[in-house]
Structures are given as structure tokens and as C-alpha cells.
Amino acid sequence: MAAPYLALGDSIAAGTQQPVPFTDNGYTGRLFKDLKDEYGFDTFVNLACPGDDTREMLDGNYGSFCYGDSAFLPPGGSSQLAAALAYLAANPGEVKLITLTMGANDILGCNFATPAGIPCFFGALDQIGANLTVILAALQAAAPGVPIIAMNYYNSSLGFWPVDPVFALSTQALVPLFNGTIEAVYAALGVPVADVENAFDTFDTSGKIPKNFRSICKYTRMCEKHHGTYMLSDYDPDTVGPQIDIHPTNKGYKQIAKTFSNLIEDLGLFDGDDSDSDD
To answer: Which of 23, 65, 87, 194 could anchor a disulfide with 259, C-beta 3.0 to 4.6 Å?
Structure first.
């Protein structure tokens, strides 16, 4: 019997590393390898779409890159949620795990350099809370009993520390509000959360150069250490000037996958299903 893993979400789930929207370096592919090796999973289905926010996951016509009338990236269809529900309906009782990475793009649309930034942020939190509830309820109804694991987020804005440490530090106040919002929805619906915030040392300020700044430069493509000096990253050597990328490095995606794998092990979700057990 097939044992699929269904991955849903935004660019983090898609494995984005600019300028490439989909890569094999993402946490979902790494997690599938762990699931295959440890628990006998045999199918990886990734419907994640770079740029999707909670509205677009529900209705691709809000501007999804992969779904709705304006889609120009695969896989197509009306929305990511609709595609997930269709897959679950076409493969009843087969999917063994669903992961969800969703919510960051709702707030990334807010311009915090303007007075409207903070009101936009709080409006986005309301939008996330309402839409995530609908998304999860639909998935749980379509796949009763199937474990769903979500994640919270790191603070990519810490990556501005090499050029503006005051701004980088100021963004920390928004992290508990954002992650707290998505964690509250997940808790209400019984969805475990992989603690990526902690795995990326988001609030660890130990060290002469605080560890959270060092970690964000290690685990994301926002910044990097070059000849002993931290600087903004440049993902396109043919373009003049730094082009920061909020997405994880290979090490960052590996760290996220490890966080999911550890949580699955701690929860004992597939105890008795591992590949080394007797059939």
C-alpha cells in the first residue's frame, strides 16, 4: 500500500532559493528522505507554491503564482487547498502525513517603512487566524486521523544586522505576535508545531555578536560571513549590489527538516511503522 507524504505551504515548503522558485534543497524533500528511511514512506507530493498567502491558498485567483487564472508555475488548478483536497479524495486513506508552512506572505505584504505598516500587520494577523482555521478544518475533514504538522517561522529581518542592527532588533517585537497567532490556531485544532523559531536561535542574544544574528546569516541567504565580516548576501553575481534572500540556505533547510523529524520522533507518530520493524 502506498505511503504518501503531502507537503503544503509557501516558498519555504517549495524549497525556494532565489532566483529559483523550486529546488531539491528544501526541507520537505529532506524530510521525505527521513520518512522514507525511517518509516517506509514511498511517495512525495509537494503542492506548495512560492508566494502563496492564506488567501491565495484558499483561492488562487487572489494572485497565486501556481493556482488560479493567473498561474504561470506548476501545478495549476483553482487553489492549493483545492489541489490538496483533490489529491486526498483521489487517494483515500493513503496519505500518512501532511505538513503545512503558511502565513509569512500575509505579513510580508506590509510596508513597515510607512505609517500603514503596523495596521497592515495586525490586519494580516486577523486574516491569518481566520483563513488558517478554514484551511486546517478542510484538511482534517478530508483526511480524518492523518497527522498534520505545521511550523512557526524564523525572523529573516535579523539578516539586516550587518547594515542596520537597530532596525534588525526592532523587528523582534513582531515575532511573538505573528508566531503566537499561527500557534494559537494550530493549538486549537490539535496540530503540532515544529519550533523553527527556536531552531534558528531567534531570541538567543548570547555572544559578542549575538547568536541570533550569527544563526540567521548561517541558516538564511539574507547575510553571510566573508573574511571574518558579516555582510548582506548577493545571490546573483551578475547583478550589481546585494540582493538579499529571506529563504534558507542548504544548512537552514536541513535544520528545518531536522526540527520536523525530531518532533515526529518525540510524538511517536509512526512508532511501529518504521522500516526496521517486522511486517
So the answer is: 194
Q: State the virtual CA torsion across 167, 258, 221, 55 in degrees, nearest 10.
A: -70
pLDDT confidence of residue 113: 79
For the chain, percent of residues with pLDDT exceeding 90: 83
Q: Which of 150, 174, 170 is nearest to 160 (CA)?
A: 170
What's the Cα-to-Cα distance from 115 to each of 101, 111, 119, rounded to whole Å?
A: 29, 8, 8
Q: What parts of the chain have a pLDDT lower than 70?
A: 1, 235-243, 273-279
Tell me if the domain spanning 4-155+173-201+250-267 has CATH number 3.40.50.150. Answer: no
The whole-model pTM stands at 0.94
- Whether the CB-CB separation of 274 and 40 falls below 8 Å is answered with yes
Alpha-carbon span 217 to 277, nearest angstrom: 40
Name 220's bridge partners.
Answer: 248
Q: What is the CA radius of gyration of the chain?
A: 19
Q: What is the pLDDT of residue 1?
A: 57
Q: Tell me how far apart the alpha carbons of residues 104 and 119 are, in angstroms, rounded to a whole number.
A: 16
| DSSP code per residue over the chain | ---EEEEEESHHHHT-BTTBSS-TTSHHHHHHHHHHHHH---EEEE---TT--HHHHH-GGGT-SSSSTT--SSS-SS-HHHHHHHHHHHSTTT--EEEEE-SHHHHHT--TTSTTHHHHHHHHHHHHHHHHHHHHHHHHHHSTT--EEEE----GGGGGTTT-HHHHHHGGGGHHHHHHHHHHHHHHTT--EE-HHHHTTTT---TTTTHHHHHHHHHEESEEEETTEEEE-BS-TTSSS-B-EEEE-HHHHHHHHHHHHHHHHHHTTTTT-STTS--
